[in-house]
Amino acid sequence: MLAAAAAALLVGGGISWGVTQSGDTPPATAAPLTLTVQKSDAMTACAALDVATLHKYTTAFEGTVTAVKGDQVGLRVDHWYRGGDTSTVRINNNQEGEAESFGQEFAVGETYLVYAKDGKIPPCYGDAQATTTLRSLYNQAYPAS
Questions:
Q1: Is 117 exposed, middle or buried (0-12, 13-18, 19+ CB in 10 A)?
Q2: Beta strands in 1-121 (DSSP E)
Q3: N or C end of the chain, less CB within 10 A?
Q4: Is the separation of the CB atoms in 92 and 74 below 8 Å?
Q5: Residues 79-97: pLDDT tens digits?
């Protein structure tokens, strides 16, 4: 009986060692994607957002705000529409040192839809609180594959 238990431990230890040595390690957590809100001037007029305009952007996601600190906003990505593979996004906002973009004030726990190109969020509608209407627009611009 004792020999059987020792053999089981030896085999189990060998299997554990083999799994850890096989290279099947979990992937490292990706660094957050960092985006910056583009500055707007007081004369900027925003045209209505449509599918064609939204489709031009290479990054689009829905995320929930996890932190607001100074001019940085942290989001947990709930759904990628286009261009991402990380679970977190950091938005740097240099709009007069406020944690808002073109009137959008971020609140922890709230959900937002964000789009960007080349790491830049446009000042008009680039980050807006998620609504049914806006989600519908994103779904049309970025149909599921």
A1: middle
A2: 33-37, 59-69, 72-82, 88-92, 100-101, 104-105, 111-116, 120-121
A3: C
A4: no
A5: 999 998 899 999 987 655 4
* Nearest in space to 115 (alpha carbons), one of 106, 124, 104, 105: 124
Give phi and psi for 9, each to the nearest 5: -65, -40
pLDDT by residue (tens digit) across 5-20?
444 434 444 433 343 4
Pair 50, 56: CB distance under 8 Å? no
The pTM is what?
A: 0.72
Q: For the chain, how many residues are written?
A: 145
For residue range 56-85, what is the model confidence (pLDDT) as tens digits? 999 999 999 999 998 889 999 999 999 988
| Residue labelled with tokens 């599918």 | 51
